[in-house]
Amino acid sequence: MATIILRMNKRWKPNVTVAAVIEREFDGIQKFLLVEENTRDGLKLNNPAGHLDPGESPVQGCAREALEETAFHFTPTALVGVYLSRFERSQPEQEAPLDVTYLRFAFCGELGEHVAGRMLDEGIVRTVWLTADEIRASVPMHRSPLLLTSLEDYLAGRRYPLDMIRTDPSVLLQNQ
Q1: Among 125, 154, 108, 138, which residue's Cα sits nearest to residue 43?
Q2: CB 52 within 8 A of CB 59
Q3: Which 8-state DSSP code applies to residue 97?
Q4: Which segments of the chain does DSSP mark as H helices, in order?
Q5: According to the model, what pLDDT value does residue 1 have?
Q6: Of 63, 18, 30, 34, which Cα lies nearest the Cα of 155?
Q7: pTM for the full model?
Q8: CA 16 to CA 13: how far, in whole Å?
Q9: Which DSSP category does 110 fall into?
Q10: What is the pLDDT of residues 108-151, one digit of tens each?
Q11: By 3-state DSSP, what share of the chain in percent is helix, strand and coil, each rounded to 5?
Q12: Are strands 15-21 and 98-114 parallel, antiparallel or unpaired?
């Protein structure tokens, strides 16, 4: 019981992330834009995604991350889902594992133009277009289980209006 009480008295702050579920049709075949990135665990696949920066709304953060990681402009038009996920990994020379909780907002939307010559974020090796079946078959390569979860929610037709997410003006950076 003491362990539970200690945990309850500690302020918990999940890491807020945003992700883009981006679809395009190629010769009648539905494909999704992913990034291949270098991680501590090797090369992994993920949605264009990242941490929400100070002074931006989740919608703004998603558009920014998509551009930074894919060199494509992206306009979120609907919320696919909000996900809570926990990640644990042992740390060399430390007893306690790294224990991180993520709160992810996944969006779908409109893919805009590609910015030729734009450098991708550090760690991003390349972008890839994969079918849903190719994504399902590559689970060991996924950086996060939320990649597949948000894809399946998207394919199931889950779409929520963006106005479900309210960002108070006090959060937004001044002089934008």
Answers
A1: 125
A2: no
A3: P
A4: 2-9, 58-70, 132-136, 146-155
A5: 47
A6: 30
A7: 0.87
A8: 9
A9: E
A10: 999 999 999 999 999 999 999 999 999 999 999 999 999 999 99
A11: 25, 40, 35
A12: parallel
How much is the mean pLDDT over the chain?
A: 91
Provide the token pair at 50.
Answer: 């990242």
Burial degree of 84 (CB within 10 A; 0-12, 13-18, 19+): exposed
CA distance 135 to 32: 9
Burial class (CB in 10 A: 0-12, 13-18, 19+), 111: middle
Region class of 99: left (phi > 0), else alpha (psi between -120 and 50), else beta: beta
Q: Name the residue with tokens 């551009």.
A: 67
- The answer to whether 66 touches 32, Cβ cutoff 8 Å, is no
Kindly give, in sequence order, each residue whose CB lies less than 8 Å from that of residue 65, ignoring residues fewer than 6 positions away. Answer: 18, 19, 20, 48, 49, 50
- pLDDT, one tens digit per residue, over 18-67 is 999 999 999 999 999 999 999 988 999 999 999 999 999 999 999 999 99
53-108 pLDDT per residue, tens: 999 999 999 999 999 999 999 999 999 999 999 887 766 777 777 778 899 999 99
